[in-house]
Amino acid sequence: MPIVLDADRIGRSLTRIAHEILERNAAHGGIDELALVGIRTRGVPLARRLAKSIHEITHQDVATGALDITLYRDDLMRTAVGAQPVIRKTEIPFSIDDRRILLVDDVLYTGRTIRAALDALIEFGRPRVIQLVVLVDRGHRELPIKADYVGKNLPTAQTQSVQVHLIEVDGRDEVEIIG
Amino acid sequence: MKKDLLGIGDLTSDEIYLILDTTEAMREIGQRPIKKVPTLRGKTIVNLFYEPSTRTRTSFEIAEKRLSADTLNIAATTSSAQKGETLADTALNIEAMAPDMIVLRHASSGAGHLLSRLCKSRIINAGDGMHEHPTQALLDAFTIREHKKRLEGLKVTIVGDLLHSRVLRSNVLLLTTLGAEVWVCGPATLLPPGIERLGVHVSTAIDEAVADADVIMMLRIQQERMHGAFFPSTREYFNTFGMTRARLAHAKPDVIIMHPGPMNRGVEIASDVADGPYSVILEQVANGVAVRMAVLYLLAGGAEGD
User: Fold this and answer.
1) Domain that includes residue A18, residue range
2) CB–CB contact B297 A86 (8 Å)
3) CB atoms A71 and B297 under 8 Å
4) CA–CA separation, B142 vs B149, rounded Å?
5) Class of the B8-132+287-300 domain?
6) With the C-alpha atoms ordered A50, A14, A5, A113, is the resulting torsion angle positive or negative?
7) Which of A91, A111, B3, B213 lies at a CB distance of 3.0 to 4.6 Å from A143, suitable for a disulfide?
8) B165-186 residue pLDDT tens
9) How far, in Å, CA of B8 to CA of B279, rounded?
10) How far is CA A1 from its chain centroid?
């Protein structure tokens, strides 16, 4: 089980991404136009950490929300047998209209989660821009989706699995490849 | 979850908590500008109602539409039931058109179980005779949990027509499963025989039943089901068992007053209590939609033939 990112690398990747977000959006209005939306589960703590980094750099708060995409999944009703995935709350306590939204997830793989997240997000309003932030891009896209900010590009085989562990959820910061 | 939701009696406490937690997430959808998610797209749900209903039928229909299901309503008064078709035949005919779920309200206890045996569609009991009304108990539990943050250890007093009430049965089963202390109170003529075996305290003295209650649930006097003289007059009933502000004073200061509707003002509850600050009656109605969305979602993925 090789560990591909340790706590230190994860921290530095997120700090770099925070700087990139500020650079790329600098020409388009202030921080108050930005909002971070994390995809449950592990996108949410990542979004919070990015908000913290942005605060450390600019001393300004970025609106942060959480999105549960379960009800928008394209594989939800395909399996006739078995328990339904547990739904958690979507919490976007601000208007996304005309905002520059940074959608945050841990791993970008087939792109189907992001497709669902885009559908879910657009029902809350009409953002000016949606950009995608991922900690790991492992390739094998099945939909025309691409990340704007990537912590690490990780070439993988489809038989492998990429596990992201975060302190807030799993008690440790680590990205490993299994299989 | 099983294929069908026929009663609270079939649910474990874990399943009840799963439904309540899913309800939290579903409620948020009702606060969005676009109150619709694509989850049950392409699923057909038949609302088969053999008894009059405003709240429950509307609530189910809104829940189904918010989940993008295709819904149709059959009211017995406008259906072939008027021509003498039996429930079983009606169900088999509907089943032949391959719906995914049937929501059934019927005056006979056990009607849902009959359909469950006959149909492959998932069956949701929206009230069967004097037996159960599971989604009502679930929305009541959700409303209580929201106000009290817990169910365990609460004193919940249920007052009224206990004999004819499916809401009572479902609530007693649910609240005792989750560890609440349940008191039931009503005239001796309206106490179901053996009710104490469900693990509740029984009283015919309202002041005793209401003392230090965290939650008071008033039940409707179901005159349409009463084929006898259970009490002398509605006026006397109100004087003995009606919820008034004076009686409310015996309960805890943060008590909440619930009623499953429809209310008979001046019979089981005084208007100033129903509309007063302790009343959560309209919150119950609002939460009903989210609870039903949760049940529909969870059943849609339930195991086949379970």
Assistant:
1) 8-74+87-156
2) no
3) yes
4) 10
5) alpha beta
6) positive
7) A111
8) 999 999 999 999 999 999 999 9
9) 25
10) 24
Q: What is the pLDDT of residue B83?
A: 81
The end-to-end CA distance of chain B, in Å, is 9
Residue pLDDT, tens place only, A128-142: 999 999 999 999 999
Give chain B's mean pLDDT: 93
Distance CA B219, CA B183 (A): 13
Residue A79 pLDDT: 56
A82 touching B (Cβ < 8 Å): yes
Is there a domain that residue A51 lies in? yes
Contact between A92 and A47 under an 8 Å Cβ cutoff? The reply is no
- Taking the Cβ of residue B2 and every Cβ of chain A, the question of whether any pair is shorter than 8 Å is answered with no
Euclidean distance between CA atoms B159 and B217, whole angstroms: 6
pLDDT band for A58, please (50, 70, 90 cuts).
very high
Closest residue to A82, CB basis, from B40, B67, B303 = B303
Provide, as residue numbers in chain A, all residues whose Cβ is less than 8 Å from the Cβ of B26.
87
Q: What distance in Å separates the CA atoms of residue B229 and residue B225, rounded to the nearest whole number?
A: 11
Name the percent of chain B lying above pLDDT 90: 87
Say if the Cβ atoms of B25 and A83 lie within 8 Å.
no
User: What ipTM describes this predicted complex?
Assistant: 0.81
Question: Does the structure show a pLDDT above 80 at A150?
Answer: yes
The share of chain A scoring above pLDDT 70, in percent, equals 97
Q: How confident is the model at residue A78 (pLDDT cuts 50, 70, 90)?
A: low
Chain A contact for B300, CB < 8 A?
Answer: yes
d(CA A148, CA A160): 24
Mean pLDDT of B56-84: 90
Query: Cα separation of A174 and B22, whole Å?
Result: 30
CA–CA gap between residue B206 and residue B217 (Å, rounded): 12
Query: Would A170 be classed as within a structural domain?
Result: no
Domain with CATH 3.40.50.1370 in chain B: 8-132+287-300, 134-284
What pLDDT sits at residue A82?
62
Report CB contact under 8 Å: B24, A123.
no
Q: Which residue has the higher pLDDT, A75 or A102?
A: A102
Task: Quote the minimal CA–CA distance from B6 to chain A in Å.
Answer: 18
- Within-domain flag for A167: no
d(CA B297, CA B277): 33
Residue A176 touches partner B, C-beta closer than 8 Å: no
CATH of domain B134-284: 3.40.50.1370
User: Which CATH number do you get for residue A35?
Assistant: 3.40.50.2020
- Residue A108 covered by a domain: yes
Instruction: Report the domain count for chain A.
Output: 1
Listed by number, the residues of chain A in 90-119 with a beta carbon closer than 8 Å to a beta carbon of chain B are 90-91, 119
CB within 8 Å: B25 and A123: no
